């Protein structure tokens, strides 16, 4: 009835038609794949040109940040020392103010005593000849000795 060669020819025709349809459908996909490969190649070229300078810039930036951090640390230490010196100066000024206050009080007390002494009435001095026996000044040891020998 049907010849096996006919079936073989028909199956080869179907295989050829299928392969042609697959190739026709795969051509745009392969073209897109080629375009993507060219784009990836351009991207990788750009990366190879741009990445090393960018990495160097990042490295330099990190070094500069480290330097700035050190400078800020030194500034903070210096400010800390200035604050300590200011505190010491303030303590010294307080002590000096206390000493001045004490000295001022002493001077004022001295002036008051001097003023009182200066403004008080001076007692009238009596003549030693008029002194009574109780008011006579006491004799020195030599005067007593000489009176004993006289008397």
Q: Choose one word for the global shape.
A: rod-shaped
User: Which class do the helix and strand fractions yield?
Assistant: mainly alpha
Mean pLDDT: 85
Helix/strand order, N-terminal first: HH
Main sheet specs: none
First and last CA, distance: 199 Å
Q: Give the beta-strand count.
A: 0
- Beta-strand share of residues: under 5%
Quickly count the helices: 2
Q: Work out the oligomeric state of the chains in this entry.
A: single chain
Helix content: over 70%
Low-confidence parts:
none
Gyration radius, to the nearest Å?
A: 61 Å
Give a nutshell description of this structure.
With 151 residues, the chain is mostly helical.
Defining traits:
single chain; 151 residues; mainly alpha; 2 helices
Characterise this structure.
Helices cover 83% and strands 0% of the residues. The chain contains two helices and no strands. The protein is rod-shaped.
